[in-house]
Design brief:
Helix content is 46%, strand content 19%. The protein folds into 2 domains: 2-181 and 359-381, Rossmann fold; 198-355, Rossmann fold (3-Layer(aba) Sandwich). By secondary structure, it is α/β, with parallel strands linked by helices.
Length: 386
């Protein structure tokens, strides 16, 4: 069976998409990904661990448009054209797997044109993201109607946690499978950090709903603490980079491949991942950083009253605090001054990963979903599997 995945970012920096694609390749599926390399940083075509990748760049008019919202329709057309080109050259994919709403229009076009099965992989709530941008009500309504229209075409939904599954289940009568962003285990033995100074690490989106750039100032003014930040060249990254340069104990290292994230997490004493509880999207989100911290045995500092915060409290694997500067500062100092507490919370995190929150468990769910859909596909068409 052949699968086409669509991704509106670079696969090398998207751990979830890479792990899903790799799991399917290892299970015997053929997987090709069309991704949007917005900064033209990678080769036009490549093969990553058996995954064929084709990249779309910002070329022509896409270069001069002000933002990605305006570029999206052009990305859809270019990706659709590339998908048809791949199909006509012999890669006759049976499934189109769309990652997030900004790829789903392409998938719907392909389903109608080629009669493929369509899977929607909802990493987060796009409508909540749109609302956080304070767009006019009319625009929000248009986005809601657009999402409903597109989702009426899908054959199955994959999402990241129970909260999002409930959201989609209440709106759409579609099969839903939860596949969490858990990571592959790297050790079953707690490894103490070997940093010379208490080090906090953050890798991910740099946005105001994640308490940036204020976190830079908070840590910059705390003694005997270092902050390392890895973030994509999107949103407010320039502001974060500029602010970081004001402090000797803050280092912004830019975009890094997800494979490097684990080593940096392991070298840190704790992870910070604050998200706004007022933004429904971030409030319900599962955080990659949380699962990265778990497999490395590192405590996390995150926001009370969010999905990530509830999981942290349930597993006793970090500290949850109110979404304000003073609370964040107090949590950092508490962990800095209490190595035994850090170790206890880190060990709890690692144990949770070993027992439940690991990629091996989540991978099984993904493969079971595909097996079920493949069986239905062939039974419905009364044909043999190839």
């Amino acid at each position: 069976m052949k699968i086409l995945m669509l991704l509106s970012k670079e696969i090398i920096t998207d751990d979830r998409v890479y792990r899903e694609a790799k799991a399917l390749v290892e299970a015997g599926y053929k997987v090709t990904v069309i991704s949007w390399d917005r900064h033209g940083e990678y080769e036009k075509t490549s093969n990553i661990d058996g995954i064929n990748v084709f990249r779309v760049y910002n070329e022509g008019i896409m270069r001069i448009l002000k933002n990605d919202m305006l570029r999206n329709p052009l990305w859809w057309k270019k990706a659709y054209k590339k998908a048809l080109e791949i199909y006509k050259k012999g890669y006759k994919f049976d499934f189109v797997h769309c990652h997030d709403l900004d790829t789903l229009q392409i998938g719907v076009w392909l389903k109608k044109k080629l009669n493929t099965k369509l899977i929607y992989d909802a990493h987060d709530l796009f409508i909540a993201y749109a609302k956080s941008k304070n767009l006019p009500r009319m625009i929000i309504k248009l986005i809601e109607n657009f999402e409903k229209k597109l989702l009426s075409n899908v054959d199955g939904i994959v999402t990241v946690n129970e909260a999002l599954a409930n959201f989609y289940e209440n709106l759409y009568n579609k099969p839903i499978q939860i596949v969490m962003n858990c990571k592959e285990l790297i050790t079953k033995r707690y490894i103490k950090p070997n940093s010379e100074i208490f080090t906090i690490f953050y890798a991910g989106i740099l946005g105001r709903e994640r308490f940036f750039p204020e976190i830079v100032d908070i840590v910059g003014n705390i003694d005997k603490v270092k902050l390392v930040i890895a973030g994509k060249k999107e949103n407010i990254w320039k502001e974060v980079k500029k602010r970081s340069e004001l402090y000797d104990n803050v280092e912004y290292i830019g975009t890094i491949p997800f494979k490097e994230v684990i080593n940096l997490t392991l070298n840190a004493d704790c992870i910070i991942a604050m998200v706004s509880p007022k933004n429904m999207g971030t409030k319900l989100a599962t955080l990659n950083k949380q699962f990265e911290a778990m497999i490395c045995g590192r405590p996390i500092i995150t926001t009370r009253g969010t999905y990530a915060g509830e999981l942290t409290e349930k597993l006793k694997c970090g500290l949850t605090v109110e979404y304000n500067a003073e609370a964040i500062k107090e949590a950092i100092i508490k962990l800095r001054d209490n190595p035994k507490l850090c170790e206890k919370l880190g060990k709890n995190a690692l144990q949770a990963a070993i027992e439940k929150y690991n990629w091996e468990n989540e991978k099984k769910k993904l493969l079971e979903m595909y097996k079920s859909m493949v069986d239905k596909f062939f039974n419905a068409n009364n044909i043999r599997k190839r």
